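Each lists sequence, tokenised fold; shown next:
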Amino acid sequence: MLKAKWISYSLNFKFPAGTSRGVLVSKPSWFLKVIDLAEPDIFGIGEVSVIPGLSLDDEKSIGPALDALCSRINDYGRWLEEFGNSFPAICFGLETALTDLKSGGNRVFFKNTFTQGNKGIPVNGLIWMGNFEEMRQRISAKLSEGFRVIKLKVGAIDFESEVALLSEMRQLFSPDELTIRLDANGAFAPDMALEKLKRLSDYHIHSIEQPIKSGQHEQMAELCSKSPVPIALDEELIGVYDAEAKMNLLETLRPEYIILKPGLLGGFGHADEWIRIAEKLKIGWWATSALESNIGLNAIAQWTFNTSNPLTQGLGTGQLFHNNIGSPLEIRDALLYHNPENVWNLQPIL
């Protein structure tokens, strides 16, 4: 017999985090705790994380939805059938909580060299939008920390200033010394996107995520076929659950890469299905967080390591919040480690 409860928690950024959709100073999360009454001292915990303006989950409906799920936790399969597609973040949180409970409630889902602390996951340094000087300082800081794959959020300041930043970076570091990824979060107008991508290609850009807003399939397919900068789909994947629909989307758009955020896609089952389809079509992929706390990030990191994907991942977001949940996760030399000597501090969410 299972029993479940939830708690809400606001994660506060260390600095205003700018994207083309606006500036984030905090973001909401909910934590779902599940116990088996046969062993009440053991519990599993999962995170329900949303990004306002991006997540499919309606923020105002999450509390009532979690109440309904908790009241039916012993029949959660039926709840998922009825409501899961409307609440992919809750699906991810439930999946993580149940897996944690089944694994003994210690937040270790896979026993491997990552969870043993012997190997790390290569992660990119994330540069949030700001004014020219702020972004310049943030880039310098990430480089001094040893990051050699940098991801810049673009689309908030004027395009010429962003080009000037890229030009400066390339004067200091060759493509062999520094890999540059961009994320536009759909900021480019479709009729101007290709021209901007051609200009960006002068700076040997590894890839750009979601140059135009999702749902514009004809324009996105054209960009994927013509862009000199490889395109990675991100927001485009949200809300696509059926395997045939996933295949049709990737066959139609033919991106070079897809970005997997399990918390926005409905959990690891959906993420695994995207991987199988992408690999069949010879489309690359990597994983990123959806700004989860260390609870969600820990689950995503363990899953990512278990896939043996060799690319640099977007999992360096645990340092963004000044009130994050204490965990074994740490970054050393641009690698994300799970250090077993660091203990969890779950007190703020229990």
Q: What stands out?
A: The chain has two domains: 2-102, 121-349. The mean pLDDT is 94. The longest strand covers residues 2-19. The domain at 121-349 is CATH 3.20.20.120 (TIM Barrel).
